[in-house]
Design brief:
The chain is mainly alpha-helical and 496 residues long. The protein is 75% helix and 0% strand. Helix 7 packs parallel to helix 22.
C-alpha cells in the first residue's frame, strides 16, 4: 500500500488524543481560569507535534502531507477569523454609539426579570431562525441581552446559556443555516425533510430548556440585584438614548433576511455603528478622544481606537462602566491564536489518517439501530473535541456512515438528524472548538462558565439517543446500491 494512503493502527491513533486530554486536565489544574490565555495553545501545538512525530516515525505519512493538512485546516477558518475581528469592532462601535446601551435601557424598562431567560432564549431563536447564523445572532442581539441580564443581577453563565441555546436552536432548524444544509446534503436528504425529521428531537429539547429557564426565573432572587432605576438614570445621563438607534439593528436584520454574507453584514454594521456614534454620541467621542478640541479628526481617531482597542468609558457608575467596556479587535486576538492552534491539531490529525482510523473503529460498533446512532453521536462528539471544528464533525461521520445506515435499512434522515443533534449543537460547549472560542470571546464569558446552562445544547444529543432507543418514527428501508441497479439491468437485458 502506498504510504500516502496507509492508515495508522487504532492504538497509535488514540495516543495523541489521550495525551491531549491528559495535558488539558493538567493545564487547567495549573492555570485555572487563565488556561486559555496561552497555555492551552501550547498544549494543542504539543499534541500536534506528537501526531506528526508518530506519523513520521511510523512512515504512514511524510511531512509534506502533514503540512498540507495543517494549511488546509487553518484555511477553512479564515472567514471565521475575519468575522471574529469584525465582531470585535462591532461590539465597540455599537456600544459607544449607544445602540447596545439603548437596548439595555429599554430592556430594563420593559422586560420582566422573572421571564428574562425565557425571553432571551426565544428572542435569540427567532433572530437565528431568520438569519441562519448563531454567530451573527450572538454578536448582535446576544451582547445586548447579556448586558440586560447583568443589570438585572443574573449570573452571566445563565444568561449566556439561554442566549446560546436559542441561537443554536435557530441555527439548527433554519433552512438558511450552513450546518443545516451541510448535514442534509452529506446524508443526501432533501433539506425540508431533514428539518421536519429534526423536529422530533429538537422541539422537545427546546421546550425542556425553556421550562428550566422559566423555573429558574420564577425562583430567581439575588442579593446583588442592581438598582435598575439608578442604572437607567446613568444610561440617560451618559448616552443620547433614542429609539431611532434601533434603525441600525433593523438594517442588520434586513440584510440577514436578504442572505447577505455574514462578513458583509457585520462590516456594514460596524460602519453604521460608527456613523451613529458621530451623530448621536458626540460628547462620548469627545471624552474618548485624545485631542482636546473635539474636531472631526479627534472624533475619527476615537472611533478607530474603539474598533481596534480596549475602551472603558467613565460614566460615573461602576456597574455601567463594566457593562459598556469593550475590547475591540484586539480582544479577539487571543481567540484567533487559539483557533489557529486548534485547527493545526485538527488538520494534522486528519492528514495523518488518525481521525479516519478512530471513526472506522466506531463503525464496527454499529450492530443495532440504537448502537448505530450512538456510534454516530460518539463520533461527532469526538471530532468536535479532537478536530475542534463542527464542519469536520458533520462531514466526516456523514461520509463514512451513510453506506452503513443504508446497508442496515436505516433512514438517511436519521443520520442527518443525528449529525445536527450532536455535531452542530455541542461544538459551542468545547473550549478549544472554534465555536466555543468564538462565543466565549464575543460574550466575554468563559466556555466552562456558560456550558452547564446551555440546556438545549446538552439535551439535544441525549434526546436523539432516547428517541433512537424507542425507535420512534424510525422505519426500516431497503436501499438498492448503484452496483445492484446495474446488475439488475444487465440480468434483465440478458433474460430478454
Amino acid at each position: 500500500m502506498n504510504q500516502n494512503t496507509k492508515l495508522p493502527g487504532f492504538i497509535i491513533s488514540i495516543i495523541p488524543l489521550i495525551a491531549l486530554i491528559a495535558m488539558l486536565v493538567i493545564n487547567v489544574r495549573i492555570f485555572g481560569d487563565s488556561a486559555l490565555d496561552g497555555s492551552v495553545q501550547i498544549v494543542l501545538l504539543s499534541a500536534s507535534a506528537l501526531v506528526a512525530g508518530i506519523s513520521l516515525f511510523s512512515k504512514t505519512r511524510n511531512w509534506a502531507d502533514l503540512e498540507k493538512g495543517i494549511i488546509s485546516s487553518i484555511s477553512t477558518s479564515t472567514s471565521a477569523i475575519i468575522l471574529l475581528l469584525l465582531i470585535g469592532a462591532l461590539a465597540g462601535t455599537w456600544m459607544v454609539s449607544g445602540i447596545i446601551p439603548t437596548m439595555i435601557f429599554y430592556g430594563l424598562k420593559f422586560i420582566n426579570p422573572t421571564f428574562f431567560l425565557v425571553t432571551s432564549c426565544i428572542a435569540a431563536a427567532i433572530v437565528s431562525v431568520s438569519s441562519g447564523s448563531s454567530w451573527t445572532t450572538i454578536a448582535t442581539i446576544g451582547i445586548g441581552l447579556l448586558g440586560i441580564g447583568k443589570a438585572l443581577g443574573y449570573e452571566t453563565g445563565w444568561v449566556a446559556g439561554a442566549i446560546i441555546s436559542g441561537a443554536y436552536f435557530g441555527d439548527k432548524v433554519s433552512p438558511l443555516s450552513e450546518t443545516t444544509n451541510m448535514a442534509s446534503s452529506v446524508a443526501e436528504v432533501p433539506i425540508f425533510r431533514h428539518i421536519r425529521y429534526m423536529m422530533i428531537t429538537t422541539v422537545p429539547s427546546f421546550v425542556i430548556a425553556l421550562i428550566i429557564y422559566l423555573i429558574y426565573g420564577l425562583n430567581f432572587s439575588s442579593s446583588s440585584v442592581i438598582d435598575s432605576t439608578e442604572l437607567i438614570s446613568a444610561l440617560s445621563e451618559n448616552y443620547n438614548i433614542s429609539p431611532v438607534l434601533f434603525i441600525v439593528p433593523i438594517i442588520t436584520f434586513l440584510m440577514i433576511l436578504r442572505k447577505v454574507p455574514a462578513i458583509v453584514v457585520v462590516f456594514t454594521s460596524v460602519i453604521t455603528g460608527a456613523i451613529s456614534a458621530f451623530i448621536f454620541q458626540p460628547d462620548m467621542l469627545n471624552a474618548l478622544s485624545a485631542g482636546e478640541n473635539g474636531t472631526f479628526i479627534d472624533k475619527l481617531s476615537a472611533i478607530v481606537r474603539i474598533m481596534y482597542g480596549k475602551t472603558t468609558p467613565e460614566t460615573g457608575n461602576e456597574v455601567l462602566n463594566t457593562l459598556v467596556a469593550t475590547k475591540g479587535m484586539s480582544g479577539m486576538l487571543n481567540t484567533i491564536w487559539l483557533v489557529i492552534c486548534a485547527m493545526t491539531f485538527g488538520g494534522v490529525m486528519e492528514a495523518s489518517g488518525m481521525l479516519q482510523t478512530i471513526t472506522k473503529k466506531m463503525a464496527t460498533l454499529m450492530k443495532s439501530t440504537f448502537s448505530t446512532v450512538a456510534a454516530t453521536t460518539t463520533s461527532c462528539l469526538f471530532l468536535n473535541t479532537a478536530a475542534a471544528d463542527q464542519y469536520i464533525a458533520i462531514l466526516l461521520p456523514g461520509r463514512m456512515f451513510l453506506d452503513t445506515y443504508r446497508k442496515k435499512g436505516i433512514p438517511d434522515e436519521l443520520l442527518s438528524r443525528t449529525l445536527e443533534d450532536t455535531a452542530t449543537v455541542t461544538s459551542v460547549l468545547i473550549p478549544w472548538n472554534t465555536c466555543g472560542m468564538a462565543q466565549s470571546s464575543v460574550l466575554g464569558v468563559m466556555t466552562l462558565t456558560y456550558m452547564p446552562f446551555c440546556f438545549f445544547n446538552i439535551i439535544s444529543p441525549i434526546m436523539t439517543l432516547i428517541v433512537a432507543a424507542f425507535g420512534f418514527k424510525i422505519n426500516q428501508r431497503t436501499y438498492t446500491s448503484e452496483i445492484e441497479v446495474v446488475e439488475n439491468e444487465v440480468q434483465q437485458a440478458v433474460s430478454k
